[in-house]
Amino acid sequence: MDAVVFDLDGVIRQWNDDDLDDVETAHGLPARSILDEAFGTELGHLATTGQLTYRQWMDEIRVRILDRFGDGARGALDAWEANVGRVDVAMLEVLRHVRRSTTVALLSNGTTRLRRDLHVLDLLDEFDEVFNTAELGIAKPDPEVFRLVCTRLGTDPAATCFVDDLPENVAGARSAGLSAHQHTDRASTVAALQRWGVPVPAGGPQDG
Description:
The protein is an alpha/beta fold and 208 residues long. The chain has two domains: 3-14 and 86-207, Rossmann fold (3-Layer(aba) Sandwich), CATH 3.40.50.1000; 17-82. It has eleven helices and seven strands. It is globular. The two termini are 21 Å apart.
């Protein structure tokens, strides 16, 4: 393989959704209210294709949530905005192993805050290339975004593989000609990489 392209959220970064659920309920909101507003409406698409900046997106989320739940929701909104998730250390070690033998890129349906988040999480230098859909103007699962990434990388889609936790994104990558795997856990992803001929040890991060 000429390149391995990883998704960020649900693969390399995990979100502490349960903690945020507790914060929301403590402020009188049903769990996942903010998440559903952010990504379950048209706002998610506008943010991840760069039609709204992160600030514009978050300000609109605040307006809608405060309109629905009142000023008591401000604390939950503050906590949601401050959250940057956590790095999956085991998957980061897999990424580092892969990078020893081939190009490693990131493709994320991100907002314009993505690079700031990567910096905070100390991930910015872990990839050879970072592709943020908010900068590209087109988001997964559209096959065109995968073709664009391959063009930017200078790789043949047939020699490029993609790892994502969402089945629709895996399907989009495959329709663009990439090999693709739906990430559910470290072991399954390592097995897929090995099938593709990418040298990755089967053990945990301590083996690296």
